[in-house]
Design a protein that fits this description.
Glucose Oxidase, domain 1, 3 domains, 4-stranded parallel β-sheet, 34% helix, binds FE2/S2 (inorganic) cluster
């Protein structure tokens, strides 16, 4: 970097340290001052003249899913410097699923704003986004999409599996399974404490196809990671190598000015949805994809997504839909193996962050090899996509069900509603002996939507009432306007839109009403007349939740429904320019 500030400012397009100067009313002085301060950290002019590659560091003592962040930052920096750039790490909010009250989703949009505004505020030519735990990757992609600079995603990677009394275990499908066994009286408190030590065997994200693994695969399918960037576990050499490559590629996209809007195109979202369906991915993936798409002016077409689902088999044999874990997927070749198998269904012309198309990247991976984790199209885990979209008078704006993780015997079911008004009501009554419930009933939970809880918590996985769990009931139809962890399983209808808290039909369901679920017909129906629903709405009008101040007030005033990704309305692109997937 030249020592004379005006020399740099004479360039048509400021780059590196000259970008986004702080406003003091004198641009030359602003650069002079910036250089003076950064030199306090020992930088030379030669270093400061390189392309600046920022690294969004989401390491946090509260977030074991990002426990390898220091090593990743170091490896990214190495890659950046090998490629001739100057790495500059900066912290942002970090969100862990179990360390965020009331729910991590309440904070996703805040992290997206933090990421976007720091990208806008700090001088950088490209940014590496280090994310992993469920909400972090979507938050970073949302923020980077709005800031629209060259950006590349680096996934922290999955945890290793543990072993409990000879049985392989991993968070968090097995967390729920063992907790369910404890509730049913099948294991005692001592064994529960023992397995607690084994469920999370290392740092890294959940080891099954939960939301974190889903978003990792989606990020690669979108073209936003290095090829092969989704699957290496957090503690492996492969993960560190991907980090180094990511740093080097970040310098390249800075030089090529490969801004994120060139990658996040309709074809990329279509590929992401195809992969979401084929991996038996978390239902949360749809909400996050809708939010990311909304940032670039695209809407998710749920009808088209459902049509895609009917022609996209589940190929990945991972829990909770199958039996393996993420480290097995990595050993089976990771996304290269899956994409090779899915190739006829993909939009191969989609540009990726390497500057090559997805089709070219698939070609570069070469032939596959014998493995048992990714099935062939002719021998799938489940013959349709993992997720089906439902409509009906109970969900005029749509609802979803993860059919690949549901009980086939309950997919066509009519039953009596057993209603819980909110999570507190659920906690107080679900295990009561006096609860009037049978295995054929349908459990309904209201007010856990975007505004209801608020933050659309993962409470849609309504526990089986204790008295039924104790007699061996493992699954029941459950309906709510909330979300469910991608690690959970069951016949569970989620994201009912509009939610109860803003007066959706769900708000007016009463104990004893009949509800019909037909996954075959893509229907979730409340079997009472429209007039009766209208009468109930008139007699008991819904009062929407409000807050007096702060972030919660902003959230309640501006959060959108699940079909819009539960993003804030003012953060979405000002104009919607199209829908994805295309209805070809
Ligand atoms: Fe972080 Fe599951 S808790 S990925």
């Amino acid at each position: 970097m030249p020592d004379t500030p005006s020399e740099g400012l004479a360039r048509a397009e400021p780059a590196g340290m000259r970008k986004g100067l702080t406003s003091y009313g004198d641009q030359d002085f602003s650069l002079f001052l910036r250089k003076a301060f950064i030199k306090g950290a020992g930088y030379t002019d030669t270093a400061l003249d390189r392309p600046v590659i920022a690294i969004a560091d989401t390491g946090s003592d509260y977030n074991a899913c990002h426990g390898n962040a220091p090593q990743l930052v170091e490896a990214v920096k190495r890659g950046v410097m090998l490629a001739g750039g100057l790495p500059m790490a900066f912290p942002t909010i970090s969100i862990h699923e179990s360390f965020a009250a009331p729910t991590s989703m309440f904070l996703r949009n805040l992290m997206a704003i933090d990421t976007e505004e720091m990208i806008r505020a700090l001088p950088m030519d490209a940014v590496v986004l280090i994310g992993g735990c469920d909400k972090t990757v979507p938050a970073q992609l949302m923020g980077a999409a709005s800031a629209n600079i060259p950006a590349i995603q680096l996934i922290t990677g999955s945890m290793l599996t543990g072993s409990h009394r000879g049985e392989r275990v991993g968070a968090c499908t097995d967390c729920r399974r063992y907790w369910g066994r404890f509730r049913a009286g099948e294991i005692d408190a001592d064994e529960t404490a023992d397995v607690n030590n084994q469920l999370v065997a290392s740092v890294g994200t959940c080891s099954v196809m939960g939301t974190a693994s889903t978003m990792a695969c989606i990020a690669e399918a979108l073209g936003m990671t290095m090829p092969g960037g989704a699957s290496p576990p957090a503690v492996t050499a492969d993960r560190i190598r991907i980090a180094e490559q990511t740093g080097a590629q970040a310098v390249q996209i800075a030089r090529d000015k490969l801004t994120i809007d060139k990658v996040l195109r309709p074809a990329a979202f279509e590929n992401a949805m195809r992969v979401l369906l084929a991996i038996g991915g978390s239902t949360n993936g749809i909400v996050h994809l809708a939010a990311i798409a909304g940032r670039v002016g695209l809407e998710i077409d749920l009808q088209a997504l459902d049509r895609m689902g009917r022609e996209t088999p589940v190929l990945l044999d991972l829990k909770p839909s199958g039996q393996h874990y993420m480290e097995d997927f990595h050993k089976a070749g990771g996304m290269a193996t899956l994409l090779r198998e899915l190739k006829p269904l993909l939009r191969l012309e989609a540009l990726t962050i390497t500057g090559r198309t997805l089709g070219e990247e698939i070609e570069r991976t070469g032939p596959g090899f014998a493995q048992t984790v990714v099935r062939s199209v002719g021998n799938p885990i489940y013959c349709e996509g993992g997720i089906a979209v439902l409509w009906g008078n109970l969900a005029p704006g749509g609802a979803i069900i993860k059919q690949s993780a549901a009980d086939p015997g309950l997919m066509e079911h009519e039953g009596r509603a057993v209603v819980f008004e909110n999570v507190q009501d659920l906690a107080e009554r679900i295990d009561a002996d006096a609860l009037d419930v049978t295995p054929q009933d349908i459990l309904v939970l209201k007010n856990i939507g975007p505004k209801g809880a608020p933050g659309m918590p993962e409470a849609g996985y309504i526990p089986i009432p204790m008295k039924l769990a104790r007699v061996g009931v493992k699954d029941m139809v459950r309906v709510s306007d909330g979300r469910m962890s991608g690690t959970a399983f069951g016949t569970i209808v989620l994201h009912v839109t509009p939610e109860a808290a803003i007066g959706g039909p769900l708000a007016h369901v009463r104990n004893g009403d009949r509800i019909r679920l037909s996954v075959k017909n893509r229907e979730i129906a409340l079997l009472i007349s429209d007039e009766e629903v209208a009468r109930r709405a008139h007699d008991n009008p819904v009062v929407e939740p409000t807050a007096e101040r702060g972030y919660k007030k902003l959230f309640l005033q501006t959060v959108t429904q699940a079909d819009k990704g539960a993003d804030f309305d003012f953060m979405r692109a000002p104009q919607i320019i199209g829908k994805t997937p295309s209805s070809r």
